[in-house]
Fold this protein.
Amino acid sequence: AAYLALVIWRTSIARPADWLGSAACAYAGFFMLPTQIHERYLYPAVALLCFSLHRAPAVPPLYGLLALGLFANLARIVPWDDRVPATLAGVGLGAWGAALVNTFGFAGMTLHFLFGVPSRRLAGYGAAAAAFTAVMLQVSPPNW
């Protein structure tokens, strides 16, 4: 509830021009913040973020992260081939890898759309997140 209140406040008062990005943040919040989630909550976030791709240089990588996270979640839940979950785990998109991708995408959206973190600073955070993910993939077994 507090996250949704923050989204509404930032959209109505602070940055009314970014209402599509803020709506995408709200839907991503419905996907990321509850204790039990369903993949259907991420569909609107990816769709709404698509309309914000032209607004800032930080949005296309965030869109890519969320789209990749949605794909990894759906491929693990409803695999079209028996080899898909093992292949995803082999490239680091097992259950925890997909969760990290979703978390970094959600954090980036929140920082950019709700707190106004500029794209240049967000790129530095993204590089740190990528380094953290690479370390986690080296430390943990590939099927995590």
About this structure: The chain has a mean pLDDT of 76.
